[in-house]
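Batch job 17 of 40 flagged for manual review because the log was empty.
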Amino acid sequence: MNWAYSFSGFFVGMLVGVTGVGGGSLMTPLLVFLFGFKPAVAVGTDLLFAAITKTSGVWVHHGKHGSVDWKIVGWLSLGSLPFALATLYVLKYLMSVGKETTGAITFTLGVALLLTAVALLVRSVLLARTAKLGLIDDEHSTPENTARFKHLQIPATILIGSVLGILVTLSSVGAGALGTVALLFLYPRMTTVKIVGTDLAHAIPLTAVAGLGHLSLGNVDLVLLGSLLIGSLPGIWIGSHLSAKIPEKVLRPILAIMLILIGLKFVLQ
């Protein structure tokens, strides 16, 4: 057990609790730049870490708030899980023929971080627009001016799931911020808590499948995983209590700028 890893898990968990940003966009770059892990190992370990830590969140959303729309989770999974498996197959094939996958994973990680940064900035705008529309706790409720596009909701949701399946499997980033923004676009009158709960519920099977796939490829450090979990769980609890005292409008732009800088470093290296 490495206490430096546990402290990092605590730090990231606290930021996740305060900002609500997925741990992958923070944890994976930290493992690569601070501790020198290979991108593939950082991604694989973080995927299983995410699958475990998100489970308790879904338990609260489903059991206490009833804020998971399982139909939408199913549509997202219909796209994401097959594409996650296909991505893992491609990675396994490339490894079997001796092709280097680090470059592809690093580049995808950089792109995912840049998209997450944009999603952070767009999310507040979408939430404000949603508030003006008036919330209806029904996933099929859309504004009158977009009602003609309702028949595209299910195919679009499956397509978004497919993109997330590839992106998350290659980078461990995107299941949180990008998934939330996509749902805000597709279901603008869903309550915020239902969007968050639904996105969180979809992230569990996706990160579990992708993480177990990386485990089979030898891309998971189990000692690192255990150390991160020990630190992150109390970190998330403390961060969630601090979130009410720290202005979100201050934190999110700072976090977005940080992710842009890290993302550019991954893309350009």
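Reviewer: the log was empty due to a logging misconfiguration, but the result itself is present. Residues 3-268 form one domain. Unflagging and moving on to job 18.
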